Amino acid sequence: MISAGLIAGSIIFWSLKLGIGPTPTSSKVRSSIRRIIPDDVSGEIIELGCGWGHLIPILREKYPSKKIHAWERSPIPAIFTQGVYRIEVKRDDFFKANFEKAGFIICYLFPGAMERVEKEIIPQLPPGCWILTHTFSLSKRVPVKTLKANDLYQTQVYLYQTPL
Asked: What is the mean pLDDT of residues 89-102?
């Protein structure tokens, strides 16, 4: 009982601190991601805010020879993802990271974080880097491709690419 309370308390604390909880990507949105994800990626594969790790299998399936870099600040989902998917999860603030070697970034972040991605991360990205988001778009960019998930909300999946 105490463990469940500590786990719940940790998730609530980090949700309030970060402005969003570790929300899983639904299976229908994951299906859309499988259909839109780029084939040709030359740099590192990076998931920003991996939460419970539901996108890790898609990334591994699509890019079996590439190392996936996962980031999650909330400790319980990070530990879960690391244990279940046997992947290193960085618990640092990804806004302080260097993305010069990125080839593909995938994220499901709240609108405020998406604004920061546009301002702070995208300028670091190499030409041709792919960015995939869902639910929340990059407001100052035009996607290369969009797809609507076949779910209740018709969730949008957005694929962007930095200029070549």
From this structure: 96
Q: Which one has a higher pLDDT value, 139 or 2?
A: 139
Single pTM value for the model: 0.89
Residue 140 is classified by DSSP as: T
Reduced 3-state DSSP string for 75-94? HHHHHHHHHHHCCCEECCCH
Return the closest-CA partner of residue 106 out of 50, 43, 34. 50
Q: What is the signed CA dihedral for 114, 119, 121, 126, rounded to 10 degrees?
A: 120
Q: Where in the sequence is the domain holding 135, given as residue range(s)?
A: 22-161
Is 138 within 8 Å of 118 (Cβ atoms)? Answer: yes
Say whether 47 sits in a helix, a strand or coil. Answer: strand
Instruction: Report the domain count for the chain.
Output: 1
